[in-house]
Amino acid sequence: MRAIWKGAIAFGLVNVPVKVYSATEDHDISLHQVHNADGGRIRYQRRCEVCSEVVDYSDIEKAFEEDGRTVVLSKDELKSIPAENSHEIEVVQFVPSEQLEPMMFEKSYYLEPDSKSPKAYVLLRRALEDTDRVAIVQFALREKTRLGALRIKDDVLVLQSLLWPDEVREANFPSLDADIRISAQERDMSAALVESMAADFEPSSFTDEYQVQLRQLIDAKLEQGESLDTEETFGVEAGEGGKGEVIDLMEALKRSLDRKRGGGEAASAGGESDDEADAGNEETEAAKPAGKRAGTKAAASRTAAAKTGTDDAKPAARSSAKSTSASAKTTGARSTASKSTTAKSTTATSTAAKSTAAKTTASKSSGTGPADTKTSGTKAAAKPAAKTTRARKPA
To answer: How far apart are CA 89 and CA 17, in angstroms?
Structure first.
């Protein structure tokens, strides 16, 4: 590294000589402009608008214009400003580090001891460590008086230039004044999402993806020339990017938690999932009494019997078959109602299904026991008209 400035920290009556180095650098790939027709490089020239001549940098001065008047300031006149000639980093006060607004931080510089004995440098560093404070300093650098913060990084003093208060804009957004209500569930889920993403900050684990991909593009262009296929290079179409989708806030939180936790904890935090709900509905369907649907079909059969009046033995046979379906297999047991009842009884899905089927059989017959049921069936076969009359009474 090359020192960009030399000076001294004025710590009361203690003077600490230091060299100043830029602590940061730009890692971006440098690109220049060219003419798209022939690839010629575009260069900027300092041309005077009065004589149209290209002016050398050594012949350029600075000026200020106000109310139509222009004041030209020569280099010597600018150097005569007292602050410009100061090479002192003056410690003004020591403050708690949490009182510094991060938005005011501008650029960082390393300070190296610039004397035969670094004892004063180490003393200042130890003072900052022992008091757990940051030194607020003032200094002049590159034709500008600056405000700065002196802090410690490892064993090195770091000078961070700060913006002046009037250089930080005020955030004045009317939309922030709107009355927004956040539910307790939304706050809990957002807190859970934050907790699932909590970690210690490790800068080395992050990568400037754009610069990596730009290097990839340059290498592919050097290899393929004008036949470059960006879709083949990156695996996506050129210009393809994510599109913002307006979705429900709670749904977004649930999906985020599901992605971070693998789906398990997200389901318990946001209620049952769609799959669980579907499974619950299937269990409910399976638990329904089998006799309920059998009773519905029996009622439909009785209605049909009432409409046909005295159609010989067909209604009676169906009624008799339904009455005796649980105890004996007769010709009427081949009917749809008998098959449904028998199937439900055979599967034995629930005790309630059998009970309902028994009640349905009892309601269709005039008696209350198996003997009465058989007798009723015999009478119905001999006298279909009378049986039809008795079948309408329960209805």
So the answer is: 10
CB 189 within 8 A of CB 176: no
Beta-carbon neighbour count of residue 393 at 10 Å? 7
Q: Which residues contact 360 (CB under 8 A, 6 or more apart)?
A: 291, 294, 295, 298, 322, 341
Tokens 């399976």 found at: 286
Q: Is 154 helix (H, G, I), strand (E, B) or coil?
A: coil
Task: Please give the structure tokens belonging to residue 214.
Answer: 């730009």
Reference 163, options 146, 176, 180; nearest CA is 146
Query: What are the beta bridge partners of residue 47?
Result: 54
Tell me the pTM.
Answer: 0.57
d(CA 347, CA 325): 15
Q: What are the residue ranges of helices labelled H in 26-154?
A: 75-79, 119-131
Collapsed DSSP state (helix, strand, coil) of residue 106: strand
Task: Encode the chain (395 residues) as per-residue pLDDT tens digits.
Answer: 889 989 999 988 889 999 999 999 989 999 999 999 999 999 989 999 999 999 998 999 999 999 989 999 998 888 888 877 788 999 999 999 899 999 999 999 999 999 888 999 999 999 999 999 999 999 988 878 899 999 999 999 999 999 999 999 998 898 888 888 889 998 998 999 899 889 999 999 999 999 999 999 999 999 988 888 888 888 865 555 555 554 677 788 788 888 877 754 444 444 444 444 444 444 444 444 444 444 444 444 444 443 444 444 344 434 443 444 434 343 433 444 334 433 343 443 444 444 444 444 444 444 444 444 444 444 444 444 444 444 444 43
The strand pairing partners of 140, in sequence order, are 145
Give the strand pairing for 14-22 and 5-11: antiparallel
